Amino acid sequence: MVALDRLALDAVWWLVTPGNPLKDPAIYASYEDRLHGARAIADHPDIVVSDFERRRNLQYTVDTLEQLQDANPDAAFIWLMGADSLAGFHRWKDWRRIAELTPIAVFNRPGYENSAMESEAAKTLAAFRVTPSEGDLLEKEPPVWVYFNETDNPLSSTALRNKTS
Predict the structure, then answer these.
(1) Tell me, what's the pLDDT at 161?
(2) In the chain, how many H helices and how many E strands?
(3) 2-158: which CATH architecture?
């Protein structure tokens, strides 16, 4: 996985959300199907598929990050997201707080380069952007973010789920 290699991570925690408040719940497969599908796709010893949000009854990323950090005070986190998420990041609950809580790594998705980089969040956080060659993201104090342009995976979470069906 690119994130493991490029960011020199010990592990990736894939948090399967009970539901995205910005998306129509009718588009979701059942939670159990999505959890099972994620586990089938995450065929790597350093990718841990978790139901943390469901167990904690969490809906918003900001709350998830705060609780992850409280539950794991010795761990350092980087929030991983696709460029499609960055394009709409300004619509997330307390998105500025998310950027203050942890470094963010954004991975390119075909067709989203312009909308991601022209988004309200990207413009607001522009002064905190670093290049992939500027060293260890975990050594930098948030807000800090990096954009990996060469990782143009076209698969959305829906497309990934459909591959396992």
Answers:
(1) 39
(2) 9, 6
(3) 3-Layer(aba) Sandwich (3.40)
